[in-house]
């Protein structure tokens, strides 16, 4: 029997060859591979770190502009689309996918590592504590979510607004058009699939180590050995596959809700049993410090502070690279659950709400740990700063109900593990199938099995660090790709806004319905150059000659000017002290859409360009197509602009615009 599959060979086969190949090399030659990739990563971080700094800065500026500007009301879908999920469900899923295990892994470890870092050793403890909070806010704040937001917004917009596949290739449609369906599109999706797989594999590998460490400290497991890690992976990946197979509306959504409720309970426990007043005060002050330092942190490359440059590479640049490498996965997942939201709603939620929660979370856990280290732990927590796997559980020893809360933390990590893995499995299958609506369950399970086998292989061989370096290296080219997403988005949004807000043509203003049959023929016909020239030589010339006669009868000196290439005809009224009044008609052309050319329900066109007579004015205002004007309507239009001209020159405040000795002359 032939197995049914929705996998696309042009994406899946090259991706699997590259993924398995890199993992095998990292497992067989872990030290050599890690050494080589570390050199490449070091070169990028030291010499090209400015690319990450500028890219992330542009992402933040772009999203703030989109959120507050005229494009904010555009909906991710049809104009009458409604969100698929409630606000709480939506927020829970994007949050669980976006940060996941990292919140548990770094909430105590990162502030403690900044606090105890040797480069800050000469500073007073209070200043080091403030800086630890500030840098943690910086790395887990607006900048991180802006990276996810750009990818998620581009994917959601082009998928639901343009009705393209939910794939990274779709984000290039305004730039590449139908080329996204071919090899270029496959290359983009292959890159996204590999990047997603590497990011999830390394993160989940480190997550398993933390779970194993916690179980050892609880006395549930005797040691942190590979056998125990394999059992943990087998159980968790099985749960992840079951969740992914059940779909977004069941497993993923349910676990995400449980997750967010559980972390809020843990957060409140630490806040209440820890130094509550200190935590609230430090959080408040931390927000102010972050806002005051926002721009200096954003653009700081530490080029004038050589002693902190290594720290800058190992933290800020590594974080930017890590978030960028995860953005195809997180962005695609966020896009998948965001149909029906407006752009303003999407960006506000993605950029502000998770950032604020991260700040609260990091303040409560990080500042509690630092306070305990200074007042109760006698420096024991800072001495363990490098042991990220066990630091959270050591921290809990200084709070009540240690054993119960340690088990609770392990359960949260387990759920985070499952939600990250199941959403990752869902995303990888989505990329490999070009967003197939229904895939066989064995196929979804296959991604989970591959993920677990390669993660365990790398854990056993010590190749996770090499794979992590590989993931961070891929962030550099993808940061450039993300900048192109912005270019593509801006181009598409401008077209979108113009399409839905374009008003009726100026030529429709004087219509009475008297000549409706003739107008219909003109509307559906494609005019060539000769027809545009004919309108100028007949209708426009007759209108201008009648006007010339009437102007002269009223004592106004006027004349008619003309040019042949391109065809132009204008009526000009001469003045000595102000600009001459000019109303002209010229032959213009524009390219016809291929869709219109291939439409059988319209007359055929011999070429992909249409010609039309277009008005122009002496003050260089934008003109419009006048082909549907009759002679009398064209005369009326000239007089309308002449009346405007007289009204403007009668006001003294406009003298700077109307006084000129550069009056128009035909050569």
From TrEMBL:
Membrane topology designation: Multi-pass membrane protein
Name this protein carries in UniProt: BCCT family transporter
Short name of one Pfam family: BCCT
Subcellular location: Cell membrane
Keywords of the record: Cell membrane, Membrane, Transmembrane, Transmembrane helix, Transport
PANTHER family from the UniProt entry: HIGH-AFFINITY CHOLINE TRANSPORT PROTEIN, HIGH-AFFINITY CHOLINE TRANSPORT PROTEIN-RELATED
UniProt keyword annotation of Repeat present: no
Species of origin: Chryseobacterium caseinilyticum
InterPro entries tied to this protein: BCCT_CS, BCCT_transptr
TM segment ranges: 12-32, 44-66, 87-108, 137-160, 187-206, 226-248, 260-281, 317-334, 346-365, 404-427, 447-467, 473-494
Stated family: Belongs to the BCCT transporter (TC 2.A.15) family.
UniProt main location, coarse: membrane
């Amino acid at each position: 029997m032939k197995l049914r599959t929705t996998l696309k060979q042009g994406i899946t086969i090259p991706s699997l060859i590259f993924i398995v190949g890199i993992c095998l090399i990292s497992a067989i030659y872990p030290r050599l591979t890690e050494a080589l990739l570390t050199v490449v990563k070091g070169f990028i971080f030291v010499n090209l770190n400015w690319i990450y700094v500028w890219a992330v800065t542009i992402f933040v500026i772009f999203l703030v502009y989109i959120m507050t500007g005229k494009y904010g009301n555009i909906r991710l879908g049809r104009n009458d689309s409604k969100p698929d999920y409630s606000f709480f469900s939506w927020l829970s899923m994007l949050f669980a996918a976006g940060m996941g295990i990292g919140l548990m892994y770094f909430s105590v470890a990162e502030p403690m590592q900044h606090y105890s870092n040797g480069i800050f050793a000469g500073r007073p403890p209070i200043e080091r504590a403030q800086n630890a909070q500030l840098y943690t806010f910086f790395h887990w704040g607006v900048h991180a979510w802006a990276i996810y937001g750009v990818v998620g917004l581009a994917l959601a917009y082009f998928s639901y607004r343009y009705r393209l596949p939910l794939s990274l290739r779709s984000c290039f449609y305004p730039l590449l058009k139908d080329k996204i369906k071919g090899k270029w599109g496959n290359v983009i999706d292959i890159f996204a699939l590999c990047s997603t797989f590497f990011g999830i594999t390394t993160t989940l590998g480190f997550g398993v180590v933390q779970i194993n460490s916690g179980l050892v400290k609880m006395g549930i497991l005797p040691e942190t050995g590979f056998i125990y890690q394999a059992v943990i992976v087998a159980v968790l990946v099985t749960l992840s596959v079951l969740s992914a197979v059940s779909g977004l509306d069941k497993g993923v959504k349910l676990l995400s809700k449980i997750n967010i409720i559980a972390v809020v309970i843990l957060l409140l426990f630490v806040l209440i049993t820890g130094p509550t007043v200190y935590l609230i005060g430090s959080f408040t002050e931390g927000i102010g410090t972050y806002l005051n330092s926002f721009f200096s942190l954003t653009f700081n490359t530490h080029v004038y502070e050589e002693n902190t440059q290594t720290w800058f590479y190992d933290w800020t640049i590594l974080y930017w690279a890590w978030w960028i490498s995860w953005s195809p996965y997180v962005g695609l997942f966020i896009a998948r659950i965001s149909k029906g939201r407006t752009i303003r709603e999407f960006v506000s939620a993605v950029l502000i709400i998770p950032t604020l929660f991260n700040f609260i979370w990091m303040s409560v856990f990080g500042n509690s740990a630092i306070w305990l280290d200074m007042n109760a732990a006698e420096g024991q927590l800072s001495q363990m700063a490098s042991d990220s796997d066990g630091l959270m559980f050591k921290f809990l020893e200084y709070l009540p109900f240690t054993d119960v809360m340690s088990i609770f933390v392990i359960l949260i990590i387990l759920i985070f593990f499952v939600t990250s893995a199941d959403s990752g499995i869902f995303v990888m299958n989505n990329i490999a199938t070009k967003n197939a609506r229904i895939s066989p369950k064995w196929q979804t399970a296959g991604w989970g099995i591959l993920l677990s086998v390669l993660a365990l292989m790398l854990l056993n061989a010590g190749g996770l660090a090499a794979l992590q370096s590989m993931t961070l290296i891929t962030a550099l080219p993808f940061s450039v790709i993300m900048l192109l997403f912005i270019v593509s988005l801006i181009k598409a949004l401008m077209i979108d806004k113009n399409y839905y807000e374009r008003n009726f043509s100026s030529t429709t203003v004087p219509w009475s319905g008297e000549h409706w049959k003739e107008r219909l023929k003109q509307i559906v016909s494609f005019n060539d150059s000769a027809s545009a020239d004919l309108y100028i030589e007949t209708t426009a010339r007759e209108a201008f000659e009648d006007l010339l006669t009437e102007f002269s009868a009223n004592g106004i000196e006027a004349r008619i000017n003309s040019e042949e290439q391109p065809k132009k005809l204008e009526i000009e009224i001469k003045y000595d002290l102000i600009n001459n009044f000019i109303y002209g008609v010229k032959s213009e052309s524009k390219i016809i859409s291929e869709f219109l050319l291939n439409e059988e329900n319209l007359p055929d066109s011999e070429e992909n360009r249409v010609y039309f007579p277009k008005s122009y004015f002496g003050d260089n205002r934008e003109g419009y197509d006048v082909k549907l004007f009759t002679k009398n309507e064209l005369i009326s239009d000239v007089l309308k602009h002449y009346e405007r001209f007289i009204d403007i020159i009668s006001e003294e405040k406009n003298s700077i615009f109307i006084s000129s000795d550069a009056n128009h002359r035909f050569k």
